[in-house]
Amino acid sequence: MDPITLTFEMGVVLGLLGLTVGLFVSEIIRIDLAAILVMVLLGALSYLPGLGNLADVNRLFEGFASNAVISIIAVMIIGLGLDKTGLMSKVAGLILKKGGTTEARIIPIVSGTVAVISSFMQNVGAAALFLPVVSRISARTGLPLSRLLMPMGFCAILGGTMTMVGSSPLILLNDLIVSANEGLPEGQKIEEFGLFSVTPIGVCLILTGILYFVVMGRWVLPGSSEKEDATSGQSMQAYMRQTYGLNADIFEVIVPEGNILVGQTLNDIMDAHHIYIVGTDYRGKKVVAPMVDTRIETPCRLAVLGLRRVVQEVADTYDLQVAPGLDRFAEDFAATSAGVAEIVIPPTSSLVGKTPQDVRIRQTYGFSLLAIHRGEEVLSLVETDEHEACRLGQQVLHTGDTLAVHTPWEALARRKSDRDFVIVTTDFPQEELRPHKVGWALGFFAIALFLVLFTDMRLSLCLLVGAVGMIISKVLTVDEAYAAVSWQTVFLLASLIPLGQAVQNTGTAGWIAQQILVLLDGWPIWALQAGLAVLATVFTLVMSNVGATVLLVPLAVSIAVAAGASPAMFALTVAIATSNSFLIPTHQVNALIMGPAGYRVADFVKAGGVMTVLFLIVSLGALNLFY
User: pTM of the entire structure?
Assistant: First the structure.
């Protein structure tokens, strides 16, 4: 190997690398702005004499059109399309049903699922698709999004080590092996790896990642960094208690076959026991905010609002069962779907002088009236610690009355321009779900996935087929597609691509590798292998994992031959180690989750530092155990 001499250009690149890491770690400025600043510096310095090879200024901004960045944009649009149909919310509900609402149970299910998906598609795609699912789970359980996204993101990266198509370095490896074999003697030629050759290593790494967050998550994961929502972000129980003194919650009550309540109306039960039935489910037909004259048929389930002791007394009286948590109604009364809102009756409202029963407020507007605030007086259907229960449906509405209602957010959004109400609550999800478009969304997602897995089309083009299909079929509008893109992620990644190219094109990467290998000269084989793994880890943090793989695999093969080690083992070590990208948010997945979870670089350093060490130990151990 010919020695590489450090040049002035290499020194400048090393300086820019140091500046980038310093800005990322110190967070003096936002990291996306730091990345843009470094890109601009790289382009400006290229005009100086002797630095013309730093960057091709005519191609400086090609990162914005790179395969990786366009793929991320497309998969964000696809993910929003699936979410707009309500599909991701149903997936979230299924996960909660199977895994409960605790962090220790949700993390393994979500992370394990994403890891398996990531083994067959790009890890950033798997992470982007599950981003809305995890957001829904966070809203419904009250668990901070920052404690769920990092385990999901890390396991998406780890999932790429499960198969030979799970990550770009492993896809490239067999091509690099073919090239390396041309310079190897007959007895030392490397056999190409099969699709599942790396699966044992990937399984070990994924299990390590899941166990790490389950056991150590309470210490290494950040707490909530997001601004709490005003009304929708709180539980209904907390909001009602603080504002109206209603210490009530929603319970799911099971009415068995042939129960004595058969034929009774909802209004009969509500008036007799000071509870509020806000949902019914009879043989799979679910109704939220049902009409009060609805008669009970069995077997059914009721969503009941009231004091726990009162609901339990009613259940004991009529031989009913109170479920331990919301099951059939979990999605309907989740914070992302419905909640408590305040609306005011203006002087011009047609409701003035009428009762809620006269206007059939539930049937007409979708509002379940919980309380009326009138001057200093609070009228409530359910009994409180401060107020007696009353029959709200028969109260005449006055100008200025503030109504506390439980409502699906979709129903509330439809009333924003209604002159009969002034909606006080504004901080609520105002998205328009399109469940009737689920077939189109799934169809175009399946087309994109098929193209990714079974054709040679460029990844970004495959995913754009799905993204454009979502828009053409009106699953999404064009404006919604634009809004789906996290531009912080796009600018962060696109701006770092020229720096990675400069590291490789100026020979800086080769010089760094050579200095490390000189230090490793004469070390035992296991130490050489570990050194290569560490070198690949460092390189993948400051340049693309593809570039690191292309650069280091030939070096690894040469070192293995010289040391009498297995060239296949050393080549695979490099290809696996380039997935060890947890320390700073330069990996596409880390950049993707950084904004929604409000992570800082220090959060990645804290949690990713331990994960990086665990990755090295487990991957090297598995490589030597299975190969």
Answer: 0.67
